[in-house]
Design brief:
The chain is α/β, with parallel strands linked by helices. The chain has helices at 18-28, 33-44, 79-102, 129-137, 155-169, 193-201, 255-270, 291-301, 309-318, 325-336, and strands at 3-10, 14-17, 50-53, 115-120, 144-149, 174-182, 204-212, 219-230, 238-243, 246-251, 283-286, 345-352, 356-366. Strands 1-7-6-4-5 form a 5-stranded mixed beta sheet, sandwiched between helices.
């Protein structure tokens, strides 16, 4: 048995309007008038108003700090250069998310943490972020560390599953989960449809979660069920590969319909032993992989956009940050809960390469 007791978040200081990023990318991708109109249409339809990045250049027209100040943006940044920037910024952003989480647990003792789970698909190095977190936060050197890498937007669910298993094994376990992604490092300037879509969605952020074995005071979320499914799809519909010029995302326009086709059976599975039906659920935490994904799920499950408002808020203000994104949504749901919501249910989904569908069912606990 485990309990999610607090979720914190952080974003880099550079916040851009979607229209600013479009201006930058039109120039960087050297788009003609027709291609520019297509990009602006995709950006406008994304449901995103703002995104964050560790890179200042997305709001500049010249005097770039990371990308080359050449007409064709060559030599385009190598994977090595991008990962060096990840190593520069990931720790500070992760610590900021932990500090934000601690504001919601004012009496929490960092020395009580027994496990650290670090999640990322946008950067890696060794000794890695897990060890740096232990040192920067002053955690016991006996802390057990686990890395979950390259699983994409649904990886937070795998981290929560692992945390739940640690707590089931040891009632005294206190697990810190940190999901940190710097998606904006991996901008690709080739004007393929995949790149136009990816460049319209992804951004940077970090989320930190405490999961513990003992019943906490106050409001918490108790995981009640986990279910996952693989939807039959072409490997090119959603994939993530390491290239010479950064990590390369493939994201086709078919993804919303593929998710829509698999979501009902996933819901039936996760609700199977709960005594609940979809109409009984008042709280949803759905990963906003894109506006069309949210709309497709609503149509298939018959839920209103109002029940999905936290996902739309996160998408609008932060974009898709990959693994932390669903935790931003879940954290906002937690902040809405009151003692009157005891025994209510929260249903959460996330999606990623495979095509993978993940779901979690939480019970609202009040102690």
């Amino acid at each position: 048995m485990s309990y999610v007791t607090a979720i914190g978040y952080a974003n880099p200081p550079h916040r851009f309007r979607q229209s600013e990023i479009a201006d930058f990318m039109i120039r960087a991708m050297q788009l003609n008038d027709q291609e520019s109109r297509k990009l602006r249409t995709i950006f406008h339809a994304s449901g995103i108003d703002f995104r964050h990045s560790v890179i200042e250049d997305y709001g500049r027209q010249n005097n770039f700090q990371f990308f080359p100040n050449t007409p064709d943006f060559e030599p385009f940044p190598s994977t090595s250069k991008r990962l060096n920037l990840f190593q520069q910024h990931a720790l500070d952003l992760s610590v900021a998310a932990v500090k934000n989480m601690l504001t919601k647990l004012p009496d929490f003792d960092l020395g009580s943490i027994t496990h650290v789970i670090n999640v990322s698909c946008t950067g890696l190095y060794a000794p890695g972020l897990d060890i740096e977190l232990v040192r920067r936060l002053g955690l016991p050197t006996s802390v057990q560390r686990t890395g979950i890498n390259f699983m994409g937007c649904y990886a937070a669910f795998n981290a929560l599953k692992v945390a739940d298993a640690f707590c089931a094994q040891n009632n005294d376990a206190v697990v810190l989960v940190v999901c940190t992604e710097l998606c904006s490092l991996h901008f690709q300037k080739n004007a393929s449809d995949d790149n136009l879509i990816s460049n319209a969605l992804f951004s940077d952020g970090s989320a930190a979660v405490i999961v513990q074995g003992k019943t906490p005071s106050g409001i918490s979320l108790k995981p009640a069920a986990f279910r996952s499914a693989l939807v039959e799809a072409d490997d090119d519909d959603m994939a993530w590969a390491i290239g010479d010029l950064g990590f390369q995302m493939r994201l086709s326009t078919y993804v919303p319909s593929l998710i829509k086709g698999g979501i009902s059976s996933l819901v039936s599975s996760v609700l199977e032993n709960s005594g609940k039906e979809i109409g009984d659920i008042r709280f949803f935490a759905i990963h906003p992989g894109g506006k069309k994904i949210l709309e497709s799920i609503e149509q298939e499950l018959g839920i209103s956009p109002e029940l999905n408002e936290e996902a739309y808020y996160v998408l609008r203000n932060f974009g898709n940050m990959s693994s932390p994104t669903v935790l931003f949504v879940l954290g906002r749901v937690m902040e809405k809960l009151s003692k009157d919501d005891k025994d209510e249910t929260v249903l959460s989904f996330a999606f990623g390469p495979g095509l993978t569908l993940e779901s979690m069912l939480f019970h609202v606990e009040v102690a």
